[in-house]
Amino acid sequence: MKPNHIEPAWPSITSLLVVVISAITAWFGFVNIATGIIALFSFIIGTCRVVMKEKAPWKIRSISFDVFISYALTLGLIITYISIIML
């Protein structure tokens, strides 16, 4: 019997696939595209959490916490990449 707090496997598999695709993209030298993939996926996850509320497949804590972390990761990745380019 499956516990109530465990969601279906597809959100975790989707996240894993995005990370693997991003890593392969970066391996071939397209770091900007790899960074964009992760940032875009983080933004999509945060937006899904806002729109779907409690029915969202990606849930860690409260809605506000999940959205803050997702959007902060998006902004942090973009700002860090841009700052590295400007060095």
TrEMBL record:
Keywords: Membrane, Transmembrane, Transmembrane helix. The chain crosses the membrane at residues 9-27, 63-86. This is DUF3017 domain-containing protein. It comes from Alloscardovia venturai.
